[in-house]
Amino acid sequence: MTDRELSPDPLVDPAAMRKQYRAAGLDAKELAAHPMDQFSRWFEDAARAALHGTLYEPNAMVVSTADAAGRPSSRTVLMKQYDTDGFVFYTNYDSRKARELADNPYISLLFPWHPIARQVIVTGVARRTGRDETAAYFRTRPHGSQLGAWASAQSSVITSRDELDEAYAELGARYPEGEQVPVPPHWGGFRIAPETVEFWQGRENRLHDRLRYVARPDGDWDVERLSP
């Protein structure tokens, strides 16, 4: 019998896994006029679910980018700000995602709030934040995270974990707790200006509600319902 013919344990067989979403529906008449206002409503719901232990890290989002040849890559990143201008996250500008965004600024975000049967899917354009904004956020990070931004040459190949730990220890000796850590010149934020924002609400029998805001040239938004 080949590996392809093996019969998996029902407990771990993905084809046998079923989850019936019994959440209330999503009506276009109930949506906010602006997608970021609607996002704020849903993010508050997700944050409350996290407070009650139902959902983990509501600001975690899957960030998808593509290189100049169109080859995609994805990773989970923490959103650190949102407002009417969009969503902000921070990273090493030498990382794979930052290098891909330098070649191709189009980006997709996915907030996977599975425990409350919701998703938010964003497409848009990423631009770097200003250095003042980056520095202001960097100062709010815990001391260890500030050191980590210097210690990690994100996405590069390293010889071992020891190499990373040694770099961190050296930085800790140079900038002990209580001493200001300079903002790395290779580190900063991206602000994603949304072009579409889809609100996905799980429903029974896989007949989910999907309402998508689409930006218009005049700055207003159209809302369209997508088939599940």
What features would you highlight for this structure?
single chain, 228 residues, 5 helices, globular, alpha+beta
* Average pLDDT figure: 93
Number of strands: 9
- How helical, in percent, are the residues? 10-25%
The secondary-structure class comes to alpha+beta
Whole-angstrom Rg: 21 Å
Distance between the termini: 38 Å
Series of H and E elements: HEEEEHEEHHHEEE
- Low-confidence blocks of residues: none
Largest sheet, described in full? 9 strands, antiparallel
| DSSP strand content | 25-35%
Shape assignment:
globular
Helix tally equals 5
Task: Give a brief outline of the structure.
The chain is of the alpha+beta class and 228 residues long. It has helices at 35-51, 96-103, 131-138, 143-151, 161-174; strands at 60-66, 72-78, 81-83, 86-92, 106-113, 118-128, 187-201, 209-215, 221-226.
